[in-house]
Specification:
Layout: H1 2-21, E1 25-27, E2 40-43, H2 52-56, E3 57-62, E4 65-71, E5 85-89, E6 98-111, E7 124-128, E8 132-140, E9 143-147, E10 155-156, E11 165-171, E12 176-181, E13 189-192, E14 194-195, E15 201-206, E16 211-223, H3 228-254
Antiparallel strand pairs: 1-16, 2-5, 3-4, 4-16, 5-15, 6-11, 6-16, 7-8, 7-15, 8-9, 8-14, 9-10, 11-12, 12-13
Helix pairs in contact: 1-3
Bound molecules: calcium ion.
Residues 72, 83-84, 122, 206, 208-209, 211-212 line the site of calcium ion.
Length: 255
């Protein structure tokens, strides 16, 4: 009876701790476009405006899985218009550590505009945390990563970005960010965030005006674990609740 009651108390404690932590847990669904799921489509192409969304993005099937297909290679390039087409949202609390997991492959990369302007932000993720910016982009020709770390120099990858890969983007606001690929324990790139006081925002998609990319995304998740101090407090609470419960039972038995 006592044990049952203490288990109920334990469950209540865990539930309370979970809701207090209010951790992010966001998964993109591929039955509809991100704009139907809380994301806002954005472009620097003043000519196409929001019409660009349906020209660049579609829900599709990739390798038998529901996917988001991105294809900016079909739009005519004009150097008077930008060719960045991305999704953004500003309603996420990004001042605590969080992780973005993206499974994607790049089918094609086309350089437009200035050849010297080649950069990999044709498929990118970036995060403004309120105090800093962490960002990376993936390129396919050649397979590479580019980031604000190393001043956007090309970091050639030992894997082919035209194949499926898991990109795990781990951001510690006020600290550093790390990008892991396919469960590797060593990040392919890591470093401090760029100081930025711009409002919090998470962005992904085609972020460059001079590259066009054809890509497929079959997973996009944003997760946040409770702060270590919160986890520790929950653990300590659980342990003390269990100890208290056991002491009570022992005491009752002895009486
Ligand atoms: Ca582009």
């Amino acid at each position: 009876m006592k044990l049952k009651r203490s288990l109920v108390a334990l469950a209540a404690l865990l539930l309370t701790a979970g809701s207090e932590a209010n951790a992010l847990n966001l998964t993109l669904d591929f039955q509809s476009l991100p704009s139907a799921q809380g994301w806002t489509f954005a472009t620097n192409n003043s000519h196409l405006g929001n019409a660009a969304e349906s020209l660049v993005y579609s829900t599709c099937t990739a390798d038998g899985l529901p996917a988001l297909c991105m294809d900016s290679t079909q739009l005519p390039y004009s150097n008077s218009d930008g060719s960045a087409f991305w999704y953004t949202r500003a309603d996420l609390e990004l001042s605590n550590p969080f992780t973005v997991l993206m499974r994607a492959r790049l089918l094609e990369e086309v350089f437009q505009g200035f050849p010297s302007g080649r950069n990999a932000f044709g498929l990118f993720i970036d995060a403004y945390t309120g105090s800093g910016l962490a960002q990376f982009g993936v390129g396919a020709d050649p397979s590479r990563i580019q980031s604000h770390v190393k001043n956007y120099a090309e970091i050639l990858t030992p894997f082919d970005t035209r194949q499926w890969h898991d990109y795990r983007f781990v951001v510690q606001p006020g600290g550093a960010f790390e990008l892991f690929v396919d469960g590797a324990t060593t990040p392919i790139v890591s470093g401090p965030l760029l100081p930025s006081s711009l409002d919090q925002a998470l962005n992904f998609g085609d972020g460059t005006s001079f590259n066009a990319v054809r890509a497929e995304i079959t997973m996009f998740q944003v997760t946040q674990v409770p702060e270590p101090s919160t986890s520790l407090m929950v653990s300590l609470g659980v342990v003390s609740a269990l100890c208290w419960s056991r002491r009570r039972q022992v005491g009752n038995r002895a009486a």
